[in-house]
Every structure is written in structure tokens, then in C-alpha cells.
Amino acid sequence: MSRSAHPAGPRHGDVLPEGHYSAPPADLNALDPKVWSRTVTRTADGKVTVGGVAVTRLAEEFGTPAYFLDEQDFRARCQAWRDAFGPDADVFYAGKAFLSRAVVRWLHEEGLNLDVCSGGELTTALDAGMPAERIAFHGNNKNAEEIERAVAAGVGRVVLDSFQEIVRVAHIADRLGKRQRVQIRVTVGVEAHTHEFIATAHEDQKFGLALAGGQAAEAVRRALKLDGLELIGIHSHIGSQIFDTAGFEVAARRVVSLLAEIRDEHGVELPEIDLGGGLGIAYTSDDDPREPHEIATALRAIVTRECAAANLRTPRISVEPGRAIVGPTAFTLYEVGTIKPLDGLRTYVSVDGGMSDNIRTALYDAEYSVALVSRSSDAEPMLVRVVGKHCESGDIVVRDAFLPADLAPGDLIAVPATGAYCRSMASNYNHALRPPVVAVNEGAGRVIVRRETEEDLLRLDVG
Ligand code: LLP
């Protein structure tokens, strides 16, 4: 073993301070395929490569911090979802996880549809050539201008989220001489086991209309009366980063029972149900996510069974995975700046990014993995906290992890599974420049979202 450069941190066999970690991994150089995208590998010289390109070359060419997105992995995940659900169902990628024009083109090529939740996402989707009829428009407070643009463009569906919106969309469609296809978003009363801020099917929250108490049934009544609307189905999204299929199954059962009530009251069998997104991914080796085919099989079985029992035609199912497609496809590459051992506690490793490129640790207490990727090391494991360069002590990227004790300033470290909700929730806090997204494929990197510049900041500052 090489001599430790940072003697203060705990070692193998020591009693470790409070934290989220288990024991140090047996081999710090190993890259768990659960958390790294499929073309990531460590070559004989110790360097990690993605899409056949060494991270050291990527850092030279594109700088750090930067998100590197494995295009082959992204396309393979799209295909896995499409194949799992088959031709009788629709997969809508949730653009909020990460959206850019290149991503829209890949989705189009791979036969996926797209869920957008703002005017900005809608513009990106249309600009990159996604056919409007393959777009679903979401949101709990879409404004009139956004609705008008979506209806005028001919989006495949608007997902209605309130009584006001039912009327608003109907009026706008009438005015444009259109009949807009819509779904009604319902809250099914499932407690998804995830962080409170990303759970969305319990009743006390801003999304949807509750099944319990009859709000959802009332929304259906109102929507069916309006000429500007064609009610095609019911939508449910129970939350995000969920590992257990049971919540989706309960949601599916409750949505089907609403379809039966609608048939009984109105004599109409709605042809579609959307069961939302939310399938979890592995951020650390301790996570065990379900595969798309497992969720597809479970959902198909429950919907078919419940519909048969209610004597309903089986509706067309759609789903809206965001994180499960893009999350595992990217890692964030950082350069180590300063290293500060705190006696008996842990070693603070500061990188050139932070909460501005990954707010999830601060916001949800999210857990991440980290690895030294510019070289391999035989040094002992050192307990670290990877922190950013922001003026805030909560600026933590990886709360607890192990890196080799010979870690030094200038080393490159990478945090995997940052493809979803990292660039899309990035900020300019402390006037940080949001990092680029570089797609890597077949031996080359290509910038798909460029790095922000200080000129970009000044351009917005018109005072
Ligand atoms: N459909 C709807 C209606 C949604 O609201 C969402 C996510 C999705 C689909 C996609 O969910 P996914 O498959 O990505 O879990 N910022 C949080 C996640 C917020 C999710 C919001 N809605 C995070 O970083 O964990």
C-alpha cells in the first residue's frame, strides 16, 4: 500500500463517524456497472474512459466541471423502455430530467414521445423537430400563453391539473377552432416511499385532483361537457426515485376503478391511462432499481386483470420515465482543488463545482458515489466529503464516500448517475457558470449544451 498523504481520516477497521456509508469498498478502483453508464471502463493505464475517450482527454478538451453523457447508453435505455412496453403502449420521456435539442432528436429517432412541463421545454421540443402530436404538456399552473402555444402547435395531449385549467384549455381550443385531446391528472392517495418533496400522489399537495372525495370524478364531468376538449384518459404520477412496484400497482388499480365509474356514469370508456414516471435508479451500490421490463410486466398484468374484472376494454397505457432513462447515462467530472483532513472526522475534498451543478444532495439529502478517474490508486481508503466551492456549508456534492488516501489537488474525480435533475436544476449561485453537457460516443465528445460564460451572466444583467 502506498503511503497515505492525508493521515487524519479513518482507516479500515477504525470505528467510523456517523454517516450514510457502509464499509469502505473492497476495491476503490472498481467501477460498479450499477451506477456507471455502460461504456464506462477503467483501462490498463488506470484511466477511466467513456465512449472510448479517456476522462483526462475530455477534461483537456472540454474543461471541468462538466457533465459527460454516454449517448450509446442513453439510446439503449430508450430502446429498453420502448421494447418493454411494446407497440400497444407509449413511452413519454420526461424532459424535466434533462432536455436539449440533441436529446429530443435521439428520442425521436428511438421512437419515444416527450413530456414537457413549461413553455421553454415545449419550444426546445418543437425546435428540435419532435412532432407535436408526440408531445404531452404538463404542469399545475400553465399560463394562457403556454396553453395557447401548445394547442396551436397541436400537442398530442394536455394533462389537466385543476378545475380552472379545464375551462381555460377548453376556451383556448374553442377560440383556435380546435378540439384538444386531454387527460385529467388525478391523485390516487398512494404514499410513495421517497423524499417528501418528490412524492406526488398523497392528497395534501399541489398536483392533480383527488380521487377520494370525488374531485377527479367532478373534473371528468366538467371536461366531458366542453366541446373544446376530447377527454382521452386519466393520468397519475405517484412520485420519483421509487424502487417498489407496489405503489404503481395500487395507482393503476385505482385509476382503472375510476374508468369503471366513468363508464357507469357517462357510458364512455376512456381509451388511455398514463401511469407517470418515477422509477428509481442506482446512485450507490446499495440501490437495487427495477428494470423497465419488470415495471412493464407488472403494470400490464394489473391493468389487464382489473379491466377484465370491471368488464372494461383494456386502455392503452403510457408511462413517463425521466430519471430512469437519462440519470444513469452521465457523470459529472470535477477537478480536485483543496483537501482538508479533519481529525477523527473525515477529509473534505473541494471540487471546482458544487451545489450549482448538483443541488440534489442539499435539497433531498441525496446520496451519490464518487471515484478517482484520472488514475488508479492502491492507497488505503479515506473517508471523504466532496464539497463544492460555494459560500455555504451545505454545499455538499457527496456526503460520505471513500477515495484513495493519496488523492491530490489536480486529480480528476467523477460523480456518476448525474444525468437527471442536475443540469436541469443547475443554478448560477455565486455567479457560477453552469457546466456544459458533452455527449460522448464512439471515440469523441461533442458539446450539446455549452458552458456558460461570464458574458452570458453580464448579458442578462441590464441594469
Ligand atoms: N411525469 C410527471 C408528471 C412528473 O411530474 C415527473 C417528475 C415525471 C413524469 C418523471 O419522473 P422521473 O421518472 O424522472 O422520476 N427534482 C427531483 C425530481 C422531481 C420529479 C418531478 N416530476 C429530483 O431531483 O429527484
From TrEMBL:
Pyridoxal 5'-phosphate binds at G278, E320, P321, G322, R323, Y421. The keyword Lyase applies. Residues 73-327 form the Orn/DAP/Arg decarboxylase 2 N-terminal domain. Its EC number is 4.1.1.20. It is an enzyme of class 4 (lyase). Residues 1-23 are annotated as: Disordered. Its cofactor is pyridoxal 5'-phosphate. Keywords: Amino-acid biosynthesis, Decarboxylase, Lyase, Lysine biosynthesis, Pyridoxal phosphate. HAMAP family: LysA. Specifically catalyzes the decarboxylation of meso-diaminopimelate (meso-DAP) to L-lysine. This is Diaminopimelate decarboxylase. It comes from Streptomyces flavofungini. The lineage of its organism: Bacteria, Bacillati, Actinomycetota, Actinomycetes, Kitasatosporales. The gene is lysA.
